[in-house]
Amino acid sequence: MGNVIASAVVSLDGFVADTEDGVDPLFDWYNNGPVEVYASDPGRPFHVSRASADYIDSTWPNVRSCVIGRRLFDLTNGWNGVPAVGDHVFVVTHEPPADWPFPDAPFTFVDGIEEAIAQAKAHAGDGDVTVTGGNLTGQALAAGLVDEIAYNLAPVVFGSGVRFFGEYTGGQVLLDDPQVVEGERVTHLHYRVSR
To answer: What is the pTM for the complete model shown?
Structure first.
């Protein structure tokens, strides 16, 4: 079995988006370097530093499925039916969209984080599952479903916005020492949850 990895690009003060769902300064590092890398969409290249490319190449290919919330799905229109990372997306929602124009896209709508992660893990097999930052991450961490945390730290302070762990109230969670990769305009911190 692979790992469940809570993953996002995060401001220094812990936000994955500002109060208007803006993310621009967080994603500067995706286009500030000479090395071209791809996730799942061959039409969406990133240009990053060598250090970030090596980190991405060691993590993204292992991801088979992604768990996201309905809010991110709506903001991105489900990336027009192409998963950002992995080959299948599980969207946590109480109400699936009725008129999404990509009915054959590899997206499954699931009611509840525990069921979404169970389905994502079954799909992933020995590959990894990512959970996007925000309330889903907090819920998954509180339920004991997160194995690793990929905290990609951008050099910006938002002051307020959408928190990486949402409204987490699950109590203290200890992490092992991080793997630290210094990119340009990002520091990749990869932690294992202590068991």
So the answer is: 0.94
Whether 53 contacts 30, CB under 8 Å = no
Quick one: fold of 4-30+63-192?
Answer: Dihydrofolate Reductase, subunit A (3.40.430)
pLDDT (tens digit per residue) in 5-29:
999 999 999 999 999 999 999 999 9
Neighbours of 99 (CB within 10 A): 5
Asked if residues 146 and 166 have their Cβ atoms less than 8 Å apart, the reply is no
Strand-pairing partners, residue 153, are 10, 187
- Beta bridge pairs of residue 193: 175
* Nearest-angstrom CA–CA distance, 191 and 195: 12
Cα separations in angstroms, 44 against 50, 113, 120, 123, 179: 18, 28, 23, 24, 27
